[in-house]
Design brief:
The complex is a heterodimer of chains A (166) and B (266). Chain A is 31% helix and 14% strand. With 166 residues, chain A is of the alpha+beta class. Chain A folds into 2 domains: 75 residues, Roll (Ubiquitin-like (UB roll)); 69 residues, [2Fe-2S]-binding domain (DNA polymerase, domain 1, Orthogonal Bundle). Chain A is globular. Classes of the chains: A alpha+beta (166), B alpha+beta (266). The complex binds flavin-adenine dinucleotide and FE2/S2 (inorganic) cluster (2 copies).
């Protein structure tokens, strides 16, 4: 069986995997990082979004072996255990940006990628367009958009909260 | 997904060698067409040859009167390329319209063209600009490259290395997005480079991407939406499915061509 090594949330990890093992399976089943969800398994819903070398990707459409040597960040890597939430997580809490929470890890990881690409001052239209690849069956998106707008502001240097821990 | 062996060559030559030794092997680029198809067990390659570590296969460069895009360049990197934005913003519209941000972060131009999905966007840009597809073996004109739905002129073991797009002064892409998948229900790329006028259509034809000679002819007088006012194409040979009838697709070809022309003139 091939061996794969990568850095996940700042920690080096190694595992024996079949070549066909998806990154999301490696994260959830080998590393027990179950914050990353599988909503569709057909590349459409965005529940599985994580960052590979700082760039958002669908972990259900990436092989673990494609991430050999990469730095992967999952929702678990955003805040310290028992520490304060990441500003984007805090904004989702504050603005009621979730109901069942199934889509939330993917939403937050996608939101951070929007901030990376579009900066901290986001209008509703941009956020809605950029959430094209993330589906939520509960909220109607309204509060997700609000949360991302506020979270992006809070992440700005000198914003209400500390900078992303990435 | 059935299991396979996984290979990560670092040169095109090594990749070609791996394909030669594993005749059923498939190249893996962004994986955003191949992996979904493997999950459905519609493709079961015994080996995957991942191109992501191969040197020199990605980037957008200006070379003479062409924009040259490496096969492994991700959709997002093409869409945001400063070089391309300056040289030919009409082409940047194409990768910018593909799927969603996460798809654009992984998918590549080489994978999209090799796959030749009948609803994919890049084939329209290649045909609509008269691009040249450069492989490890030869150069193929876009007019000869796309041979039908999911089929291309690529031979066994042939690897796309880059795509060369001649710079057109005027060009634009207009797409009617399928609201769920993001793919083109119909997409039209128009361009004018000196006397060479092209109108290429994706999503509509049951044989994949094609050119609309009647529009091209009419646009010779003036490259403007007005020149093809009221013109349509016949519905024969158009796709019909639950998303749209052949007649509707044929209608969209005219509408989108006019919108693209208006954008190209702007
Ligand atoms: C949710 C979703 C939405 C999408 N929406 C759109 C859309 O709106 N428009 C659109 O056009 N596409 C869309 N796509 C497809 C996407 O653009 C794919 O990335 C693209 O079609 C394939 O590129 P890839 O790099 O992922 O290739 P892969 O999936 O890795 O490979 C595809 C095929 O090309 C072959 N191949 C790859 N690289 C080479 C090469 N250099 N030389 C020869 N053969 C090669 C592979 O062997 C394979 O057969 C979507 C995909 C998803 C998952
Ligand atoms: S589980 Fe990956 S996109 Fe839905
Ligand atoms: S909160 Fe339930 S799917 Fe989004």
């Amino acid at each position: 069986m091939p061996t794969v090594s990568m850095t996940v949330n700042g920690k080096p990890v190694t595992g024996d995997v079949e070549a066909r093992t998806l990154l999301v399976q490696f994260l959830r089943e080998n590393l027990r990082l179950t914050g990353t969800h599988v909503g569709c398994d057909t590349s459409q819903c965005g529940a599985c979004v994580i960052h590979i070398d700082g760039i958002a990707a669908k972990s259900c459409t990436t092989l673990a072996l494609q991430c050999e040597g990469a730095k992967v960040t999952t929702i678990e890597g955003l805040a310290e255990a028992n520490g304060p939430l990441h500003p984007m997580q805090e904004a989702f809490r504050e603005h009621h940006g979730l109901q069942c929470g199934y889509c939330t890890p993917g939403m937050i990881m996608a939101a951070l990628d929007i901030v990376r690409r579009r900066g901290n001052d986001l209008d509703d239209h941009t956020i809605r367009e950029q959430l094209d690849g993330n589906i939520c069956r509960c909220t109607g998106y309204h509060n997700i958009v609000k949360a991302i707008k506020a979270g992006a502001k809070a992440m700005a240097p000198g914003g209400a909260s500390r900078q992303a821990a990435e | 997904m059935y299991n396979f062996t996984f290979h990560r060559p670092t040169t095109v030559r090594q990749a070609a060698g791996l394909l030669a030794r594993n005749p059923e092997a498939k190249l893996l680029a962004g994986g955003h067409s191949l992996l979904p198809v493997m999950k459905q067990r519609l493709a079961n390659p015994p080996a995957l040859v991942d191109l992501s570590l191969v040197e020199g296969m990605s980037g957008v460069e200006l070379k003479g009167r062409s924009v040259v895009i490496g096969a492994m360049t991700r959709h997002a990197d093409v869409a945001n390329s400063k070089v391309l934005q300056e040289a030919m913003p009409g082409l940047a519209m194409v990768p910018g319209s593909i799927g969603d941000p996460q798809v654009r972060n992984r998918g590549t131009i080489g994978g999209s063209i090799a796959n030749n999905d009948p609803n994919a966007d890049y084939p329209a840009a290649c045909l609509g600009l008269g691009a040249t597809i450069v492989t490890n073996k030869r150069r193929i004109a876009a007019d000869d490259f796309f041979t039908g739905m999911f089929s291309t002129a690529l031979e066994e073991g042939e690897i796309i290395v880059k795509v060369m797009f001649p710079i057109a002064k005027k060009c634009a892409y207009e797409k009617f997005k399928h609201p769920a998948s993001g793919f083109a229900l119909v997409g039209v790329f128009v361009s004018k480079r000196g006397p060479d006028i092209r109108v290429a259509v994706t999503g509509a034809g049951s044989n994949g991407v094609f050119r609309v000679k009647s529009f091209e002819e009419a646009l010779k007088k003036r490259f403007a939406a007005k020149s093809i006012e009221g013109m349509t194409i016949p519905a024969t040979g158009m796709n019909t499915d639950i998303h749209a009838s052949a007649e509707y697709r044929a209608h969209l070809v005219g509408v989108l061509a006019r919108r693209a022309l208006a954008k190209a003139a702007a």
